[in-house]
Amino acid sequence: MKTSADPVRDYLSAVEREASALPAERRQELVADLAEHIEVTRAERPDAAIGQILAELGDPRTIASTALAEAGTTSAAAPAWGSGAVPAQGRGKVHPLVPLLMLTVPYLFATVFPDATLFGFLSTVFRVVGAVLLCTSVRWSTVQKVVGVLLTAVLPTAAITVWEETTVAPAGDLPALVANLVTLAVLSGTALWLWLTRRA
User: How is the chain split into domains, by residue range?
Assistant: First the structure.
């Protein structure tokens, strides 16, 4: 039988209790943002003690009072947690448009300048950074992140590799143009979907 308390659960329960004056939906969003931030931080820093991670977030009472104060001015505002805190939107200070642009625009440049090695390299770097920003953002659910990365990074990269490294692809400029247009449509459609379904 488990006798030791779960510090993360206790911490989140304390935040939820202290923020009980918030509307239920806003309170659940606050707790979900904190839980996701804790999960991401633990993945990034597996050697860090959970107590240290929770201490960096700040006191539950401070987090709750900040969220309550902001809810009084604008309900859509994201919580800015106490001093020394790393907001769940920390990666959340990055505007949600940034990862979407980083996942789509570089492909356009690489398509326009297919023979420029520098554009190809930068396109890859920007898309990897965009995928990381998307995955660490609190603006989207896990399912949205997985679908977004698959459709904007994994599938296009796989398609390009198959096209360039095998004999499966038909020869000629027209098939290549059609393939590029389809890829751009998928990237743009996915980015638009992610933009429209993001959390406020």
Answer: 7-91, 97-197
